[in-house]
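Record type: monomer structure entry
Structure origin: computed from sequence
Chain ID: A
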Amino acid sequence: MIRRNNDGTDFTEKINRGYETRLNYMASKYSQVTAAHLIVTWPNDVDHSHANAELGESLNALRKTLRNQGVESQAGWVREVAQDRKDDKPHYHIGLLCNGREVQSGMGPAKHLNRLLTKRWGKPEESVFVKCQPPNPDLDCQAELNNRYSAIKLRTHRENAKAQRENILNWFSYHAKVETKGNVPPRVREYGFSQLSKEE
């Protein structure tokens, strides 16, 4: 099944290309890039009619906090709805790329994004709506250099860097699957990316 965007481009290709562009950008600037996969589950008792906007604002706030700490980041998100749901309550997959010398793991960003969202929703801070998805160990060909398993780190000048880059893109390609897309209200976006100063 091939989903198409309004401009006729391949839905899957556009998501994969968005991540590839941002990974290339980060790898061109930093010798280490940390890639994390965050999953956001929307609470059943929270209105989700403006979920994209709320997620986008919270993700921007997370990236602003990182920027204030001297950490550059890029991100993409996709909105999904489980096929067996009777409503259109979404969950989100976020691909986060950070300067790998400053961010070693996806756990810190996940906890901060969770704090932002629980505050917005009036939920107890100890509630967990944002989780850091661990990668398949087989997708880390520089694993001997890593000490965490909540992210894949690309070391651009080390052995297997090209394969490691492909591993990150393969991991993020999960976000482009079409089976859980399409169950959205009219004119609601199903994916988005942080802005680059210049698209490649």
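Annotation 1: Residues 120 and 150 are 25 Å apart (CA to CA).
Annotation 2: Residues 11-29 form the longest helix (19 residues).
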